[in-house]
Amino acid sequence: MNGAGEVSDKVSGDTRLGPGLLVLVVGPSGAGKDTLLAYARARLEGHAAIVFARRRITRAVDATEDHIAIDEATFAEGVAQGRFPLHWRANGLAYALGPEVGEAIAAGRIVVANGSRAAVAEARGRFAHIKVVHVTAPPDILAARIAARGRESEAEVLARLAREPALDAPPELRILNVDAVDAAGERLAAFLRGL
């Protein structure tokens, strides 16, 4: 193992992170990714093979997301030292998956992480096995959900909605998150159970 849990798959000679599976849950701000991840985490408690990642984000911790707050210097140092198996920037913030993600993947586990559509291509190059779940909702619902967080100005909400990176390939699962949390959350949990 080297770097952020990088291993060579001895069977295929692949130097991407493996043999485990990374499931990236992506979609626009306000789609409800964190809500669905929290639902799935609760429903899958006790499934030792499935790990839910806590991202590092250059933002203070709040009640809307279970993440680890880091500053820009810590992020830059982690990137420079290769501690993060995946990192990206979006909406004026820096995001990273921590070294524990690489370790879980190296141990053959399934890691489920809130990701970014803009980071999917990079993830495909870094991980031997990846599946993408795309969560979305209509624009008016997205705007209302982002505004309800109370973290951003109206201009910042509009900027988030304008950011629309395309996926590099169709996702393995699409969830239109407009119904009750348990309806969409159960679709995600069922998908993860079947992996």
Automatic annotation (TrEMBL):
The EC number on file is 2.7.4.23
Query: What domain of life does the UniProt record list for this protein's source?
Result: Bacteria
Q: Which EC class heads this enzyme's classification?
A: transferase
The UniProt annotation places ATP binding at G27, P28, S29, G30, A31, G32, K33, D34
Q: Which SUPFAM superfamilies match?
A: P-loop containing nucleoside triphosphate hydrolases
Would the keyword Lipid metabolism turn up in this protein's UniProt record?
Answer: no
Note the InterPro entries from the entry: P-loop_NTPase, PhnN
UniProt keywords, alphabetically: ATP-binding, Nucleotide-binding, Transferase
User: Gene3D superfamilies recorded for this chain?
Assistant: P-loop containing nucleotide triphosphate hydrolases
Family according to the record: Belongs to the ribose 1,5-bisphosphokinase family.
Identification of the protein by name:
Ribose 1,5-bisphosphate phosphokinase PhnN
Annotated source species? Ancylobacter radicis
This chain is encoded by the gene named phnN
